[in-house]
Amino acid sequence: MRITVLGAGTMGSGIAHAAATAGHEVALRDVEASYVEDGIDGIDATLAEGVERGKVTDAERAAALDRITGTTELAEAAAGADLVVEAVPEDAELKRETLADVETHVDDDAVLASNTSALSVTELAGALERPERLLGLHFFNPVHLMGLVEVVVAERTDDATLATARAFVDSLGKETVEVRDSPGFASSRLGVALGVEAIRMYETGVAGVADIDAAMELGYNHPMGPLELTDVVGLDVRLDILEHLREELGERFRPPQALKRKVHAGKLGKKTGEGFYVWADGEAVRPADEPAAGDADGAGAER
């Protein structure tokens, strides 16, 4: 398959990485050349880490990188694509504009997919001349490690589109769950519900960040606690999803003030170095509400 990925950020570059590693030719497109370069550099770094850990050979790394072409030109990226995966920021109007634009450049049999984690795929499809060719392919971060892709079937998604999407996910060695288009789908709705309750517990002093996460990691065998996961996903992303779900499903998804305060302060999690945890070199160092080692009076720690 020839795969086009629109958006070279964390998710877009992750999807491009997974597709290229699986043997697909990939066009990675973004609006600025620097974004494309950063995306490909990130893929290279992740593959290099895989080589160091013995998960990837040097030859496999080189072959995967050779399969990826970066560009800022939409027509160039879309030419000959069998599947286009839109992975631009989680803004409904931007996604609609991007999908409508790319539809004018692809062949009649090309399938379009959105990597949205919560927005209505049926509404996004309304921007297309042929809405039956669109569905949701919700990947999880980090894409190259996570084994699940949520396939979101919109109101007018046809069988041929669904079959192509399933074949692509199968080729990546990942599993699918198929859901009907509804607010938050299955994964975001359940994941955010757990995350928002964990934030409320932290906010009301039920327990500290590390203890809340340990309860789920050790008591329920979750690989990562809900507050650390919120940091990895991005507090701003979680806030956007909560606001959307509150509008669609009601007050049980009302964003906690603690989350809003951190977002307004620019504490967005792993990508900014602080959220519910303090991060260094990609690792959670300590909860942000605990003083650093040697800081006996807690100066600089979150209150």
TrEMBL record:
Xref: SUPFAM superfamilies: 6-phosphogluconate dehydrogenase C-terminal domain-like, NAD(P)-binding Rossmann-fold domains
UniProt entry keywords in alphabetical sequence: NAD, Oxidoreductase
Enzyme class: oxidoreductase
Record InterPro entries: 3-OHacyl-CoA_DH (IPR022694), 3-OHacyl-CoA_DH_NAD-bd (IPR006176), 3HC_DH_C (IPR006108), 6-PGluconate_DH-like_C_sf (IPR008927), 6PGD_dom2 (IPR013328), NAD(P)-bd_dom_sf (IPR036291)
Pfam family, one: 3HCDH
Gene3D superfamilies reported for this sequence: N-(1-d-carboxylethyl)-l-norvaline Dehydrogenase, domain 2, NAD(P)-binding Rossmann-like Domain
GO biological process: monocarboxylic acid metabolic process
MF GO annotations: (3S)-3-hydroxyacyl-CoA dehydrogenase (NAD+) activity
Residues covered by the 3-hydroxyacyl-CoA dehydrogenase NAD binding domain: 3-181
Domain of life, source organism: Archaea
Domain 3-hydroxyacyl-CoA dehydrogenase C-terminal: 184-279
EC number: 1.1.1.35
Site label Important for catalytic activity, positions: H138
Residues the entry annotates as binding NAD(+): G7, A8, G9, T10, M11, G12, D30, E90, K95, S117, N141, K271
Keyword Oxidoreductase: yes
PANTHER family: 3-HYDROXYACYL-COA DEHYDROGENASE FAMILY PROTEIN, 3-HYDROXYBUTYRYL-COA DEHYDROGENASE
Name of protein: 3-hydroxyacyl-CoA dehydrogenase family protein
